Amino acid sequence: MSRIDAPLTASKSLNAQEMIVANGREKSTSRRGIGGAQCPVAPWFGSLLPPCVSGSLVTLLIAFAPPSYAEAPPVGIDAAVQISADLTRLTGRVDVTIDNVTSEPLNSVPLWTFPERLAVPPEGMPEVEGPNMFPRGFQPGAMRLLDVSSAQQSQLRLKHRSREVSEVLLGEPLPPGQSLTLRVRFETDVPERYGPFGRVGSQLVLDGGALPRPPPLDHRGFHPDAPLDSVRWSLVVQWQGEQAAQLIVNGDTEVLEPGAESSMLGGVAKRISLSVIVSGLESRFSHDGVLYRLFHSRTRCHEASAGDLVDFGCVDTQGQVLASMAYALGWFMRRTKVKGPEVITLVEAPLRRDVALTAPGMVWISDRAFEVLPIERAHKFHRVALSRALFGLLLQGRVQTSDWRREVQVIDMVAVALAQSWELYQYGKHESGMDVLDEGSFMAAIDDTMAAPQVPFISTYFVATDDTDRYRDRFTLFSHSRPSGRLWLAKLRDRLGHKSVEHVVDQLLGGRVDLQAALAEVSAEDLMAYLARWSKGSPKVNYILGAVSSGADEEGHFVDVEVIREGDIAALREMVTVRVARGDVRVDHAFEMQQSRQVVRVRLSTGSGEPMVELDPRGRLI
After folding, report:
1. Strand pairing category for 356-359 and 541-553
2. How far apart are CA 51 and CA 40, in angstroms?
3. Per-residue DSSP letters for 231-249?
4. What is the DSSP string of 20-77?
5. Which residues pair with 291 in a beta bridge?
6. What's the rounded Cα separation, in Å, for the pair 288 and 332?
7. Band (51; pLDDT cuts 50, 70, 90)
8. DSSP 3-state of 341
9. What span, in angstroms and rounded, lies between the C-alpha atoms of 186 and 184?
């Protein structure tokens, strides 16, 4: 572990009007001394303090006791790898242990080769998005399986089923109840690429997928097209660089000297998330009994001393992250009555499409976090994204799910609900980037941005009902088509209302029931079948506003609105809202769309003036 000259401390409890002051020193893993300084973190409201740090990409890793498992996962991976000095390649071997938990012999074992997904540019990516994905143009990733053997056979045949799946053909079938260990020698080429899999500058970020591994296995067999499931894992890393480097693996941290091997790391997790920072720095900060460890690649921007000129272009982004996490964690513990972790580890990582991502034992946070207008109305979007990732981490192992395939979705659904509750508590309302820009929509440039936004973190500012990454070029998404938990949350609210969904979330937080049982408490409808309509992603449908007519009858004034739906509409029942305004009167009318064409009648208290009609005013349709 790297040595710390002086721990960072907080002087008093944090609330909405206060700030954390992080006092301490940075220490370099390259033994390069960095001067200490006081670095104030901006308060939640009001004017910012003097800027303090240049933006570096921050990853949050929260280490706490891992969840216990009733039984060991049937797949184990024990790996020993070497990382090249230039961070471009991983080489080594993986011992894959398979416990046949099916009722039939296994004749083959599939292996995921995720880096092959990155061998070609993302399908459908417009040229304008390239700079947010590739620092210097497209570079391919790759994984080569050099050979596969077992104790019974020195060389096993490989069959390539697809770009991302290879199949090991066993010499003899593996009977039910028996185990087998395969030794796989491999090479992985790491592309220069922003995001959760790549290398940028002196940092390597591999959020799973760097090692060959089988897809999930249960009593029905292997599931190559399913989300990740837990595996037993161990890892030893040899660093081939000429300078010391900081290694972070699923929240465990270690300094690697040139040519040295790490200790054996291991546990049970859905993936192995790894980062290496050459000549990295470490800062520490304590607040309310929680130790925050920050690993970063660039020196923090410090407050100007008395009499010095203030650099107003210098913003303490790391301090903003610390303050946001400390406050969100305090709110989470009060809201859930769950004791927080003793240690939160933060690490840099270059994200451009996400402000933050949850990983085993950690949360990745973008180096561009808080590099926006220095006003709280802009910073709030980043704080909400950070809280969602933090809550998702804290909920791992605490939310019951009867089906492992939807575990990540359910956890994310609860995390989104909590992040929205935190936003309402902290800021008094929910807001999207459209709400902010709408005030200046009379300007052509802003109006163009609203019509076709092309900015980093687009799903953070322009909150979508389904914010799943559309390219699915990350290890958590590449193998399946399931959406994020935000979509399920929105569809349940459309169906049940906010109060009933809040009850469902509370039941899940209690850890006593799973989603199906929690939903049964608020509705007799088969809501799991309802949610299954979106389990393969959003249907390809197009909603069109048709004819509008107004009139009056014995009940009063009304406006008839025709709504047309085209595309993949088979068996799709979805809540749709139309907004009708006439003068100062505005009515939102929600109905369930069951046909390709429906006419709904909206009642108004006035009949004067032409009605203004808007379809899906809250942007809930996909």
Report:
1. unpaired
2. 8
3. EEEEEEEEE--SS-EEEEE
4. -EEEE--EETTS-B---EEEEPPPSSSSPPSP-------EEEEE-PPPP-SS--SEEE
5. 286, 343
6. 13
7. very low
8. coil
9. 6
- For residue 557, what is the DSSP state? E
Q: Would you say residue 64 has pLDDT above 50?
A: no
| Residue type at 462 in one-letter notation | F
Lowest mean pLDDT among 23-37, 191-205, 363-377, 475-489: 23-37
Tens of pLDDT along 166-212? 999 998 999 999 999 999 999 999 999 999 999 999 999 999 999 99
- How far is 617 from 348, CA to CA, in rounded Å? 38
| 291 pLDDT tier (thresholds 50, 70, 90) | confident
Length of the chain: 622
- The listed range with the strongest mean pLDDT (68-72, 320-324, 513-517) is 513-517
pLDDT digits (tens, 9 = 90+) for 112-168: 999 999 999 998 888 888 998 999 999 999 999 999 999 877 899 999 999 999 999
Tokens representing 283?
A: 């800062």
Given a contact cutoff of 8 angstroms between Cβ atoms, the answer to whether 56 and 298 are in contact is: yes
d(CA 273, CA 331): 27
Could you give the C-alpha distances from 443 to 372, 378, 411, 438, 547, in angstroms and in order?
Answer: 20, 19, 40, 10, 31
What single letter denotes the amino acid at residue 586? R
| pLDDT (tens digit per residue) in 596-619 | 899 999 998 876 788 999 998 877
Region 319-341 average pLDDT: 89
Residues 304, 308, 313, CA angle at the centre, nearest 5°?
A: 55
pLDDT band at 109 (very low <50, low <70, confident <90, very high): very high
CB 193 within 8 A of CB 252: no
Q: Give the pLDDT score at 562.
A: 94
* b/e sequence 472-486, b meaning 16+ C-beta within 10 Å: bbbbbbbbbebbbbb
Cβ 76 vs Cβ 109: under 8 Å: no
- Dump the DSSP string for 466-482: ----TT--STTTTT---
Contact 466, 487 (CB under 8 A): yes
Res. 68: pLDDT tops 70 = no
Residue 584 burial class via C-beta count within 10 angstroms: exposed 0-12, middle 13-18, buried 19 and up: exposed
Average pLDDT over residues 475-486: 95
Residue 184 three-state SS: strand
Q: For residues 441 and 458, what is the distance between their CA atoms, to the nearest angstrom? A: 18
Distance (Å, rounded) from C-alpha 553 to C-alpha 288? 64
R_g of the chain, CA atoms, integer Å: 26
Q: What is the DSSP string of 125-161?
A: --GGGGGGT-BTB----EEEEEEEEESS-S--EEEEE
Distance between CA 22 and CA 330 in Å, rounded? Answer: 17
Residue 499 and residue 492: Cα distance in Å, rounded? 11
Question: For residue 296, what pLDDT band results from cuts at 50, 70 and 90?
Answer: confident
Decide: 534 and 483 in contact? Cβ < 8 Å.
yes
Mean pLDDT is lowest, of 286-300, 302-316, 484-498, for 302-316
| CA angle, residues 147, 153, 155, in degrees to nearest 5 | 25
- Beta strands (DSSP E) in 279-360 are 281-287, 290-296, 343-349, 356-359
- Angle made by CA atoms 284, 289, 292, in degrees to the nearest 5: 25
Instruction: Label residue 57 exposed, middle or buried (CB < 10 Å: 0-12, 13-18, 19+).
Output: buried
Q: Which two tokens stand for residue 93?
A: 């071997």
- How, if at all, do strands 273-278 and 290-296 pair? unpaired
